[in-house]
Amino acid sequence: TFWLAFLYVIGACIRKFGWFDSLAPRKAFGVYLLCVLVSWGTKLCFEGITMRLLGTPVTVFYFITYTSPTIVMAAAALFLAFKNAPISPGLSRIAAVFSPAAFGVYLIHDHDAVSDFFIVDRFGFLAESPLLLMTAGVILSALAVFTVCLLIDWVRWKVFIRLRVKDRLEKLETRFTRLGHFN
User: What is the Cα–Cα distance from 155 to 141, expressed in whole angstroms?
Assistant: First the structure.
């Protein structure tokens, strides 16, 4: 929760203060590529050094986690690269539907209870499969996880509509605003 709030504040600052508004899409994409290369390069170099020194590679995920500064910069740069891209109205409508859904998929699949029970160490067998089978397995597994999480989020959305959660929260917000709690 803290991390999502932190990212929200960073995004709000980028929007409110116009940070990087003058950054050209090609430069933003270049920053993205540089950040990804630094992240993975650092990880691979660290593994190579530990392999030579210890005889076994020590994998450190600090450089490729969601909270890594280079990954955060890569995400922001990728967003900025596509921020002003021309999009057809049809694609815009599809994005408007799937953006919140994709966020729901992320929250569901990354929850410890779901991740630990259904995802972690469940697909290792694919690493020992032939390349074509492994590639197809990874893609199909990702699609299956995405689809199941999408269905879960769709059910949540339907329940929220049925219970009028949004309306009730807006009324609660109005009450608190009138009482001066949000001013």
Answer: 21
